[in-house]
Structure formats: structure tokens, C-alpha cells
Amino acid sequence: MKKKAKPELNKLLPLAIILVICVAAEMLMSNFVWFSYVAGNTDFTDFVPENVKNEIVTKDNDTLQVREVGFPLNSVSMTVQIKNASVADHLAKAVFNVADEGNGGVLSAAFTDKIPVGTEPKRHTVYLNSRGDAYGFDVKFSAFNGDIAVTDIVINPTYEFSFNALRFAALFLGISILLLLTKTETGKTLRREFGYREAAINAAAVCISFSVVMWALCSTSETGAYYSYPLENGINMYSPYIQQFDAFLKGQLHLDVEPSEGLMSIENPYNPASRTGIECLFDRAYFEGKYYSYFGVAPLLTVYLPYYLFTGNLPSDSTVSGVFSVIIALFLPLAVVEWAKYRNKIRPWLSAVAAVAAYFATSVLLIQRGRAQFYYIACIAGMAFASAYLYFVAKYLNTSKSAAKYILLFLAGTSFALGFLSRLNSIVPVGIATVTFVVIYGIKSIKSKKIGKYISEMAVLALPVAASIVFSLWYNNARFGDPLQFGTDYQLTVADTSYYKLSTVGIFPSVIHYFLQPFSFSEFFPYFGITRTVISDYGKYVYIDANFGIMVYPLMLSLFFVPYLLKGKRLSREGKALLSVSTLSLFLTAFINFCLGGVIFRYTADIALFAAFISAAVMGELCGISEENHGGAIAKTTKKTVLAVCILTVIIGFFSMFIMTGNMVTYSPDFYEAAEEFFVFWN
């Protein structure tokens, strides 16, 4: 009679099976190149060319040549190292060309990649796959600093078995969790008890984790975690935020930098052509012989001042951006889940998935990497306070206690005010939606004869906003003699911005650039990027820079279903009004940004956050409609589609942190290489 297996062993058996499957999958992925190519090309000659054992590649002679190989190539291994001690580690572009019998001895491109080069030697293997005996190959380097020493070149090196432990752990953990949730009683219980509270906690935890990782990566590019105060270098060497903070501590509004005599002698200093050869602080406001910062003061009040009071120093740029990124990672997911809870027809698990996708669709991971970060600090601060505002309003809608409602409205008003004092354009779309909400709520209050409660609640919401507006009017008048002048007309930038006006010419380009402009595709990981695209002659709109439209994130495609919701019966008349105005606010903000600023992806971020929030809400409504009105296969298909869209959005948003552009923080090349090896197993 056979003994029954012990219950403990029965529980461990599935894990053992998963373990074996993951080990096999990881071995296949880590050694995919060998299984798919090298295993059938076994000419491992380990040939070391004598004439190129130690070759120095310089910018004047950027090509390394190896000739008369005489047999088929399958791979080349080499060690590279920067020979200039003062040059930092970075990524260099390497293009390998092969001449063989298959192409008649003519060099043709075989492989292109970005490889890390640094002060420490790094070994790289590239698979070339020649067609017949090779006459030789060369490797052409570009986008590199200093001189590169290429040593220990080996043709067709003996293959070395590899195993990516991190990828294996991710596979094992992911599959185990998936099976736990779908195939076990414990998983069924967890899914049954998964409410909005659990959705909020899990979504926020995921987003905050990515935010903190990016914060750490960006910090590696800076020489220190803070700036000592008093400042050790000349004040003109620092960002506008530090210059403005220094000015406030000195009891003045203008920056403590003396303009040059050449600048003060120009009739029109705002024309960049007239400033040629003249020293000035770029992208500051210049008015009546003094420099000013036209960037909002909210980051100074919320990050710089507390940091200074606690430490006596000033925070680094990555610290400021990191704080605001964490705020977005906390409040935007919470806002999406709270809105789903308010609608009460959107499943908690769906709200959690949509909340995470919404965070990645804001392009915050890319904004956080911005170099010359005072530009990006303004954007990310505005996004942070806008996300906090959305959360407090959604929480207010889900709260029944009067005292709590007033507190939440005050916090919402304060968040809006801080967003207004960070970057006006980033708060415009939610501001337009708020006006609509206030009007709708007022009409309903009049009909229900609760006008007193309405007035008191809206007064609490408006109090911080009114205070910020009054402060701005005073602040503008004190600096520029005009309450409505924020300093934008006095910028020392790439154009005379005083000529920028709203014009109907900007309608079509704003839709194309801010919504529909696609990614560019490249041969490098992550295989897409952002480019400068001009679709017509914009006349005075000279500021056209790297950009992509929000529709590159699949989550945003749900905006195309807004007309469907407006025609349907699921939303009330008030809900339809709020949705239509909120959607139109995105287009209006894009139009204003294009006319008064131009095009760059940090301007697109002004609409991305609110668009992500709206898109997540629309996704939830579509799932609710399919479940209530159709059910069965249609409902399941809709949920699977939404899940796929959200996952794809997260992947694109995650990969955006690897987009390498000229004005971005360049974190460790080793991290870039590790990420490429993790995801790109087929190279």
C-alpha cells in the first residue's frame, strides 16, 4: 500500500516545478545567442591579431581596423578603456563593419550598439556572423570623450556560459505570485478581499519604488548631495532657484548678480542677435538693470527652505526633483483609486493597475532626469501639486464628515495654490476642470437648497488659491511694475518672447506635437527616442525641441472613447459636462503652451498628468460598461485588453528612463548595460 505524500511536499511541488521552469527559461535567454547562432558555427579559433593588440582610438582616428582574418567570423571580443583620467565613464557608439566573401570583400555594417567605456577596463563581445571567409572588419567609434584603448582583441572567442540571476529572480517571483493569486485558495481569498484600500497601498508602493530608484540614479551624476551655504562659488554659477533663495535671504527680490555693462547698453537686450558676444545670465528675466528669476517660488517654500532650516545647506537638484517625484508617485495613484471608489462601479484591482499605468504615462521618470534642472524642477513641482490636488478633491468626494471635508478642501486649495506658484501652465487644465465642478456643484446646491454649505466649502477651497493670486500680483508688481507680468516678456532666452501671442495658427501644430507626435526609433536600447520635428513653417515659433505626444502611451488612447461616453447613458449630465470640459482643457493648455512657448517634452508634461488621470478614469468606465451591459466574453476581452494596455504603458514609461538625449542626466553606463542585458537577451 503506497503512502500518501505529505501535505508539505504537495505544497512545495508546484514551487519546485516553477523553479525548474524558470531556471530553464533563464538559461535559454542568457545563452540565446549561442543556441540560435553560435552553436551552429563552431569555428572557435581564439585568433589574436598581432598588429592590433594595443590600439589607441582617438577622435581624429576613430576607426580600429583588423585585416586578413581568413576564416568565418562569428564573434569578436575586446577590452576597452578610457586613457584620459579626467574623463568620466560614458556610453560610446560602436559600429562594426565586416568584409567577407559574401559581400565581395566590401565593408558593410554588421552591428551597432552603445557600449560603456570608462577608466576601468571593460570587456565586450559582439556577434558579427560573416558569410564565408572574412577579409577583415573594423569598428568605428563615435560619441566618445577622450582616447579609448582597445586591447586583447579575440576573434571567435570560446563561448562562456552565462546566467542572469536578477532576471531569474524576477521570473520566479512573477510566476509564483501569478499562480498564487489565480490557482490557490489563498489567492482567491486575497483577490476577494482586495478592496480600494489595498489597491491604493499597492499602486502607491509600486510607483514610489520606481521614483526612489530614479532619484538614486540621478544622484550619481552630481558631485555632492547638497550645496554649502554661504555659497562657495560665484552666485552666477548656480541655478535660478538657488540664486532666488540667496536673494530672499539677503532681503531683496532681484538676484545678487551685477549685469555686464555691455548688456545694460543694448537698446533691446531681449533680442538674442543683439546679445551676441555679450555676457549675461541666460534664461533669467532682465528688467531695469537687474536680474530676476521668473521661475515660481513654491519649490523654494516647500523644499529649499525646510532643507535649509534643518541642515544649514541647500539641496542638490536631484534631491529637489526626487522629492517632487515621490509626491507624484504617492498622490496620483491615490487619486485614481479614490476616483474609482467614488464612481463605485470600477473594480479595485482595475483601479490599481490603471493607477500605476497613469503614473508611468506622465513621463515623470524622464522629466526627473532633466539636466539644467531648474527647467524640469518647475515642471515636476507643478505636476506634484496637481496630483496632490486631484487626490484631495477625490478624497473629499468620498468623505461624509463635515470637518474632514473642510480639511480636505483646504489641503486641495493649498495644493492648487502651490501648483500655481510652481508653474502656472501645469495647473491650468485642472483649474479649468475645477471651475466646471464649482459651477455644477453650485447649481445642484441651489436646487437642493444647500447654498450655505456650498458657499462655506468653496470659500475654504478658494482661500489658499486667492492668497496665492494676491501674493503673485504683489510679487509681480514689486519686480516688474505690473501685477500681471510674470517676467516672461523680459526673458534672456532664444527669442524675444514679448512677441509671442495666442494665434489660431497654433491650433493644428499644438494637436500634432502635444498629442500625436510619435517616438523616433533607433537601433539602440531602448529602441525609441525623442526627436526634433517641424511639420511646417511656424514663423515666430522658434523654440521647437525634442518632443513626443502623449498618445505614445497606450493608456492615453482611451481619450478617443470620450465621445462614446458622452453619447452613452452611464454618466449623468453633470458627469458628461465635467468630462467634456476636462478633455477640452488638455487641448486648450497645449494650444497656450505652443503659442507662448513652443514645443519640448517638458511642456507636454503640463498636460500629461491630467490626461493620464482622465484616461485611467475612462478605462474604468469602459470596463464597467462592458461588464454591466454585455458581460461574458465581451467583458473578459475588455478587461484583458485594458490590462494589456496598462502593462504596455508601464513598459514604455519605464524604458523612457533610458532615453539618452543631450540635455539629460547621464547615470552610470554600467546601469545602462545591466538594464540592456536584462531585457535584450537576443543580442
Word description of this protein:
- The structure is a single chain.
- The protein has 683 residues and is of the alpha+beta class.
- 52% of the residues lie in helices and 11% in strands.
- The protein contains 21 helices and 14 strands.
- The strands form five sheets. Strands 1-8-3-6 form a four-stranded antiparallel sheet, with no helix packed on it. The chain has a four-stranded antiparallel sheet with strand order 2-7-4-5. The protein has a two-stranded antiparallel sheet with strand order 9-12.
- Helix 3 packs across helix 4 (185-192), helix 6 packs across helix 8 and helix 12 (374-397) packs antiparallel against helix 13 (402-420).
- The longest helix is centred in the C-terminal third of the chain and has 30 residues, at 451-480.
- It is globular, with a radius of gyration of 29 Å.
